[in-house]
């Protein structure tokens, strides 16, 4: 019995030492991020029978156990991932709002209004050179504003994509690190500090890409993306990949099509093509979805848009992406699908190196598509790029393209202070023998059946001749237009095409010319007698021909007598009317009818509203994340005051255990003394 008492005391001393060590370690790591408060777990060592009595044998410490609530942690991970996504989005939305701030003197809204207003001022003084100089100054300010806005937004895109690349690399390091810790924990399952390190690493990964975790009975944690793709299963890993634009196909079982889908250009949208009829390239039809097949693109009347599969010469443009097929010697089958991702994206990589897209996607109602990533900073970065930045960049480009076209369409048929001796187009034709609609001209789709007039003058300004040149974009080529001009003005005006595909008009000696009454849009599309050059916000510029000679800023127009009245101001007035005139801006799947000012105001206010919403979302997400963080901290965090109390109690436990040993030794000595 005395020996049992001694054993109880010995074990109690050891247990107290372990408990004191554990508590001391808790205190030492009170400020260590991710540290989980540990407790010594005691278990009775059972009883022995002595003289018919059941006597206890003390207790052993069977484990050092960290305090952790998995249920709370699951809720924290979800909230933390949402917060990380909100923060990533909000940061860039605030920057976008600053870039588009219209209150600035050099902001887009201010410079655009000043430019259009300057045409009204020119209309009041149509013969003024100083007004033309002032107008060119306003034009240069607008061009600079558009160019710089485009450049800043493009730089932001590159910054976001660089950050995405870095975060994917970090996520993969965490994935590999968690798998390594799984192996180490498997070899040392009672090492609670390894478990705590793994839990902290899981939190770090969750902030990058929202995850869910499963902890089987063997303690080998399994990590999945929100859409259920495994990232860590024991020691096995699946990495994330951030890669460039790509396409995939999903053909019907009976399909025999052997060709490939091809595309050029970029877009914030993913394009899902589904064939609605069978047949070869040139006749088979397909529809397009931007949300993975939940809805299908429609025209302004609500009818599903149907496209014809064509080769490279008959490509179709969808959201800025030219789509065509090549190499097909057999028919498409109804139901065949092709997915085009015309942007860099986030993918999960399988063991066979196959890639599954987990880039965030929203449907037509703005809701997240369920099989994609939604939480974590990666999701926030990709969402702000695809749902905010790229659409805004596209909107600014669409507005610039509309501004260029509308101003040029008026200016190209107007007249300035002096007639022309020579003109060169600013837009090149890829194929001068092809029909105008298939010539590769930037604004080819804007050319309509119609005509334009040319007037020639002698050295005294007397009309020599005039002719109307008919245009049919479906049947006429640039060569046809050149021949028609040369036939109409033999010896006085020569039309030609240079080696780069630009149309040139050259008058004979002592002959000048004017252009007028273009109902076809050909002159503006070719860049003849235009004010602007370029096609979007990044490359818009003032025509160098006008910059070199401001007298060619057109204010008036050719009258019915073939002459330009000194007080003519119809061209300037028409361009000024663009301040309030409703025009179509955008493409067939996302166009809007509005004035330039209204359109820009809508874009800017949309970004401002999104930035404000993101800030509010951060507040909500922060509250939720903090709530679960605090709940977990109350379970796993170290309270130094409590640990000091525990330390005092354990010190007393140690002293009592020593007393047990001392008593048992005294009892043993007494017995020895009786012998």
UniProtKB/TrEMBL annotation:
Keywords: Bacterial flagellum, Cell projection, Cilium, Flagellum, Secreted. GO terms for molecular function: structural molecule activity. It comes from the Bacteria. It is found in: Bacterial flagellum; Secreted. Residues 635-673 form the Flagellar basal-body/hook protein C-terminal domain. Residues 7-36 form the Flagellar basal body rod protein N-terminal domain. GO terms for cellular component: bacterial-type flagellum hook; extracellular region. The keyword Secreted applies. InterPro entries: Flag_bb_rod_N, Flagellar_basal_body_rod_CS, Flg_bb/hook_C_dom, FlgK, FlgK_helical. Residues 93-249, 364-419 form the Flagellar hook-associated protein FlgK helical domain. It holds the Pfam family Flg_bb_rod. GO terms for biological process: bacterial-type flagellum assembly. Belongs to the flagella basal body rod proteins family. NCBIfam families: flgK_ends. This is Flagellar hook-associated protein 1. It comes from Maridesulfovibrio ferrireducens.
């Amino acid at each position: 019995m005395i020996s049992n008492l001694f054993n109880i005391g010995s074990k109690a001393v050891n247990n107290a030492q372990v408990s004191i060590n554990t508590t001391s370690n808790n205190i030492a790591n009170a400020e260590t991020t991710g540290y989980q408060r540990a407790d010594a777990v005691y278990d009775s060592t059972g009883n022995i029978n002595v003289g018919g009595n059941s006597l206890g044998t003390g207790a052993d410490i069977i484990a050092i156990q960290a305090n952790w609530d998995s249920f709370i942690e699951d809720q924290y991970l979800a909230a933390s991932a949402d917060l990380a996504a909100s923060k990533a989005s909000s940061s860039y939305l605030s920057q976008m709002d600053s870039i588009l701030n219209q209150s600035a003197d050099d902001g887009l809204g201010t410079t655009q209004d000043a430019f259009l207003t300057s045409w009204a001022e020119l209309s009041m003084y149509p013969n003024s050179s100083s007004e033309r100089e002032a107008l060119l100054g306003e034009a240069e300010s607008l061009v600079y504003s558009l160019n710089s806005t485009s450049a800043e937004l493009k730089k932001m895109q590159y910054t976001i994509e660089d950050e995405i690349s870095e975060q994917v690399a970090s996520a993969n390091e965490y994935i590999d690190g968690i798998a390594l810790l799984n192996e180490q924990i498997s070899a040392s399952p009672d090492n609670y500090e390894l478990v705590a390190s793994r839990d902290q690493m899981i939190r770090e990964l969750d902030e990058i890409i929202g995850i869910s975790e499963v902890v089987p009975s063997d303690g080998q944690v399994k990590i999945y993306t929100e859409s259920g793709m495994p990232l860590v299963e024991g020691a096995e890993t699946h990495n994330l990949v951030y890669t460039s634009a790509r396409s995939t196909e999903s053909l019907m079982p009976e399909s025999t099509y052997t060709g490939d889908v091809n595309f050029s250009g970029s877009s914030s949208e993913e394009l899902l093509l589904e064939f609605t009829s069978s047949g070869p390239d040139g006749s088979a039809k397909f529809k397009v979805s931007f949300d993975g097949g939940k809805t299908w693109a429609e025209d302004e009347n609500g009818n599903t848009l149907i496209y014809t599969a064509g080769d490279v010469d008959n490509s179709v443009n969808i959201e800025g992406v030219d789509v065509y097929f090549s190499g097909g010697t057999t028919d498409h089958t109804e139901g065949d699908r092709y997915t085009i991702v015309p942007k860099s994206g986030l993918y999960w990589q399988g063991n066979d190196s196959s890639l599954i897209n987990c880039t965030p996607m929203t449907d037509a109602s703005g809701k997240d598509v369920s099989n994609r990533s939604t939480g974590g900073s990666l999701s926030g970065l990709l969402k702000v790029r695809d749902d905010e930045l790229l659409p805004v960049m596209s909107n600014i480009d669409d507005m610039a393209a509309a501004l260029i076209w509308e101003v040029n369409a008026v200016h190209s048929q107007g007249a300035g202070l002096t007639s022309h001796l020579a003109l060169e187009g600013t837009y090149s034709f890829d194929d001068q023998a092809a029909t105008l609609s298939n010539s590769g001209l930037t604004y080819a789709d804007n050319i309509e059946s119609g005509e334009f007039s040319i007037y020639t003058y002698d050295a005294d300004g007397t009309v020599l001749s005039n002719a109307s040149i008919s245009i049919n974009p479906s049947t006429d080529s640039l060569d046809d237009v050149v021949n028609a001009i040369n036939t109409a003005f033999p010896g006085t005006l020569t039309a030609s095409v240079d080696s780069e595909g630009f149309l040139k008009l050259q008058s004979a000696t002592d002959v000048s010319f004017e252009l007028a009454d273009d109902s076809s849009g050909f002159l503006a599309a070719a860049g003849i007698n235009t004010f602007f050059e370029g096609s979007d916000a990044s490359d818009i510029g003032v025509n160098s021909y006008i910059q070199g000679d401001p007298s060619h800023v057109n204010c008036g127009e050719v009258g019915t007598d073939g002459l330009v009245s000194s007080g003519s101001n119809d061209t300037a007035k028409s361009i000024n009317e663009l301040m309030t005139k409703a025009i179509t801006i955008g493409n067939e799947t996302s166009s809007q009818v509005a004035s330039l000012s209204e359109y820009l105001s809508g874009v800017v206010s949309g970004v401002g509203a999104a930035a404000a919403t993101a800030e509010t979302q951060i507040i909500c997400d922060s509250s939720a994340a903090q709530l679960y963080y605090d709940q977990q901290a109350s379970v796993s965090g170290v309270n130094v005051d409590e640990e000091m109390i525990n330390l005092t109690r354990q010190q007393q436990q140690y002293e009592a255990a020593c007393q047990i040993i001392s008593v048992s030794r005294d009892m043993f000595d007494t017995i020895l003394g009786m012998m």
